[in-house]
Each structure stands twice: as structure tokens, then as C-alpha cells.
Amino acid sequence: MNKLAAGCVFAFALLVAAAVLPRASSQESNPTKPAPEDIPPVRTIADPYPAFNGVAVDAANGLVAMSDPNRKSLLLYDRVNGASRGASASVPLRQIVGPDTFLGMIAGILLDSEHREVYTANNDIEDTVVVMPYEASGNVKPARVFSVPHQSWGLALGQAREEIAVTVEVQNTVVFYRRQVKGVEAPIRIIRGPATGLADPHGIYWDESHDEIGVANHGNFRGVVQNTGGGCAPSAVVEDEAEAGESRPPSVTIFSAGAKGDTKPLRVIQGARTGLDWPMGVAYDPKHDTVAVANNGDSSILIFSRASNGDVAPVRILRGNHTGINHPMGVAIDPQNGEMWVSNWGDHSALAFDSGANGNATPKRVVRSAPEGTPTPGFGNPMALAYDSKRDALLVPN
Amino acid sequence: MTQPRIAVFARLANGNAAPTRVISGQKSMLGRTIHGLAYDPVHDEIVAPNALADAVLVFRAAAEGSERPVRVIQGSQTHMVTPHAVSLDLRNGEILVASLTGRRINVFRWDANGNAAPVRVIEGPRTGLGHVVGLAVDPERNLLAVANSQEILIFNRTDNGDVAPRARIAGPKTGITDEPWQMEFYKGKIFVAASNHFHDNLYNGVTLRTDAKDVPDDPWLNPTLGFVGMWNITDSGDVPPRAMIRGPYSNLLHPVGLALNPRTGEIYVSDSVRNGVLSFLVPQFFP
Hints:
The structure holds two protein chains of two kinds. Chain A has helices spanning 3-20, 22-29, and strands at 43-46, 55-58, 63-68, 73-78, 94-97, 106-112, 117-122, 128-133, 144-147, 152-158, 163-168, 173-178, 189-191, 201-207, 212-217, 220-221, 246-247, 251-256, 267-270, 279-285, 290-295, 300-305, 316-318, 328-334, 339-344, 349-354, 365-368, 386-388, 393-397.
């Protein structure tokens, strides 16, 4: 349905609904007298605090920023002074939140230090990337919004090429836009095809020094030839036959930054020795010439040599009870200060480590969006439920 | 979902509660798109779709951590195309799968495993299937209800191939405007999370639509709020819900997930804007 037609249908539906569902109008305009069907919940499970998905750091401007799909906000902290004092929650410099922001179920985040802009990808179902100026705060309209394919997750900025790279999960694709993209613009190129090895791509980094990009893949794959729709998005095309879904091993695929079409990756990190387990965010560390992977499945950060290829073990693994790493979603490198940032989905924290940290290391600083120990429901757009009658329990996929 | 996982909460959990256990990790084979989930009390199993790998995963209900499914339906013979929601017909021992971009319903035996062929597939232009999500079977009347696009379709339970629905619940009196979501059945009634969000995707796959001009409004800011509605499965036409939950006191904005507990008279609802799970005590809905 095109937007005009959809708008007409929507307007018509509103008019008719107003005519035939009078209680809806009256009860919503006068909530002091609830209608019979306006039944309050007896219980609600929800997290009142921001929950961190992506993390990005800008040493030049002294910022670290996180995307928050729980409260649907962006939080900007002072890189040093934003750290939590003891167990208390940190105070952000700014929080961008509200209905005008276009922020929804956001995932990847990047900071453009030169142009002082924050980018974040609305994964589901807004299908947009939101660009905010560094100074934005509260319920403000974005500087720019541009449409992207459904289930976009990771973001990377190519400064030299003046391009934004966006991973698209269900399409097994990386799409590229010009940096100043605004509104509705077609990608200037894409990486997509059977040779690419892309399979449910998530995080992405752009290594300017070697003109490479690296992509973390979960391994879910449903083809790229007949795969025309996706996820929960309606498709104009009926896919007659599947290409046979696959559950491939997770991987990090490294491409030339100028790659397009059905291009083979330069290198692929994949196999049992890698320890990859739901790799989410990825980042390149120029100081150590390594690639850091937020390994969500086993609550670790894996560090690979940049030149790694094949079934290779990480050169370092950051994991253990002292690290505070708890189902990490994002990782970011601050080469200027020799630090690595990790954002946790398993609790309300982001951690700053020495970028050479190894093993069961303790973070240098912790940014908390809630007091330490606050329970974390961990919802991220929960779109289904089931009730386990044997265990008297609610099952929530999220 | 942000993290692919199935989180388990105590039924009486309230407020800022943590799950009691979580199924997650690479071995679980879960993906980040699960729009229908089912518990099988007969076999004590959890059934979940993985839309990103064209698969249906079956876990033991007590599964925890990075645990493999006990069965995986996946492969070219399954004819699943973006299966994003599942439902169960316990009486007849079948798993029903909503294949979104295939615009079809695949029906498997409850114990299907591997590259299994469905026992039935409802698909084709006569079916009217479009954005299919919620599925619910009435084993007494042998009917199948489908939450589809802007309507509810009723098929015969054993329909197969390109068949027209026997009834259609749609129209302004229903209150359903866009993408009704999860659906459950109880004693002749169907319960639907009528989300009424308004999803306008400008891409076909990764190709920008030629008619795409403007960035759509935020789909979750659709001023027509969603609700939980109940109909008789024998209803047809432009019929208002026979019972509903909606309004400012309900805290529902655009509900999507739905589960029933007739024993306690409760309905559980997830709401994407609230990013939470709400429990309603409505024994009057379960006479």
C-alpha cells in the first residue's frame, strides 16, 4: 500500500472508528472516568531505566554515547567524568528522548567527531537511521532521518569515502549511503550475494588505515537470491519458494571497504577455535592492530589479530567475574586514550577497559544507567508471549 | 527483540523484575525475530520460529542457557518462507507456522524434525493471506483463525492449497486497522492483540520502492491505539469485539504479544512501546 493510499485508509478508519466506537473517543479524552473495557493491569514487568545496546566513543570531544532501545533514547556521557560514583547511576550530559526524536528500537550507534553528529539505526520497525547533532537534548527532532531496509542493525562511517555503511540482518547485506544522506535515497552500493558469506550481519567496523570493513555475522541465513522480503516487513513480492534456511557458524567477514555486489570477503574468521558466540558489535583497534568482538552469547570480548583468517583462536579473551561483562552488545575503541568500551545488555552498564586488557580484568571505569544491582528484564520490543502452565511462568522472546 | 533469547519470568513477577532463566546463545539457534511463541503442555516443550533461518525450533520447556533445540524443522522441503510466528493445535498434534513473505501457513506434525515436508500448506491468491501473524485452531469446530493484514480470516482447519477463507472478520467496527498480531483460542473465542501500529516499509528487500518519496511517520505514534479484542470464532463480517481491553488505564498502546491463562482468568500482553509485559485479571473473559 503506498503512503497516500495508506493515509487515506487510515483517515477513513479514524473517521469510522470515531463513529462506531464512541467509547474509545470519550474514554481516551476523559481518562478520569474509565470505560468498562479500560481495565488496568494487575502487574507490569518493565524496566524504567535505560538499557544499553550500542556504544561509541569520541576522544576528541570527550564523549561516550550509548543507544537505549528500552526507553528509546540516546545517552551522551562525559568520557571520563560520566563514570558512576560507587554503585549509583551515572548522570549523562544529555539524554535525547521523546516522540519527536524518531528513536525507537535502536541498535548500532556511531559518533562522527568531525561533524559532531550521532547516528543510530532504528532496527525494527521504524526502518530508519536517525542523525542528531551532538548538542541535541530532550525531545528534539533529528537533524536528519533516512530510510533504510528493514532490520538494519550496525553502522560504520567511512571518513575518507564520505560514506555510511549499514548492515541489514534478514537481507544478509551491507548497504552504503553517502554521508549526507537525508530522507529517501537509494543506497549508492551494496554488498550482497552468495559469495559474500554474510549471514544475519550485525556489528560493522570501518578500518580507514587498511581500507577494510569487518562485519559480525550470527549465521542465520535464508538465502539472497529469492529472499526479497524480510523479518516482519510486508513484502510486495510473494516469495514462492525458500532457498532452504541454514544455521551457519558465526563469523567475522572482512571486505575491502570499496567492495560491492557479490564479492568474496578478503578474510573470514569462522570456526570452533574462534569461540564466536552471537557476535554483536565489532571494532578495530589501530594501536594493537586487532579486532574486538562483543561476544554476546558467552559474555566475553574476543580480540583477534586483524589479519586473522579461518578457524583461528583469539589472541586475547576478556572474560570473567571481575570484568563485569554481561551479555555485551557493543564494543568501541578509543585509540587516543588506549581504551576499549563495552556496553552490556545483561545489566545497566558500560565498561571502560585498557585496550590491551586480557583475561579477568577489572574495568577502569563504569557508566551505569541504573544503580548497581538493579534487576534487568532485558526486553527489546517483545512481540510474542507464551504461558507455561506447568511452571506457572511467562515466556518472553526478546 | 534486541537480544535473541527466550526469557522466563515467574507469573507473578511485577515491576523491574529479572527473568528466572534465559534460553540464549549460539547453540540455541534463536534469531532476533520471534513473533509467535507456543508452550506445549502435552510434551512439555517450547516452540519458537527463527524467521532469519527459515526454521522452527523446539526446546524442552526447562531449557536454560545456550542449549540446543531438541528438534529443528529447517530445509528446502519445509516450504517455510520467513516463518515469524507459530501456534499449536494440541488436539490434533500439529504445529502451525505463519510464513510471512511466503504468505502461507505451513502445518507440521508436532514431532516433525529436520527437512520435513508440511502435512498441509494454505497458500495462493484465493486465500487472501498477506501479513499473516497470529494463528489459532478451534479443534471442536475444526476451524483455523488467522490474524492477517487488516483482518481476521477463518479457514477450515484441514484446508490445504489455494482455498478461500470461509469467513472474514474485518471492517471499521472491528477496530482493527493494521497488522493484528498474536492470537489465542479458548472455548469458541479468539483473542487478538490488535496492535494497530502502522508499518510502511519503503524497501522491497534492499531495493528502494519506486514510489517511495518520504520517510514514514514513526509507526508506533499511530494515534489509533491498539487493544486486545475477543470475537467468537464463528463471527463473520464487520463485527465489533465482544470484549476488549483498551484505553488509558489499561496502559496499552500497541499490544502485540498475547497469552491466556483461563485457570486464573488472566491475559498477558506485551506492548512494544511500553517495552513491557502487562497482566490483566479478567475472569469474565473466560466464562
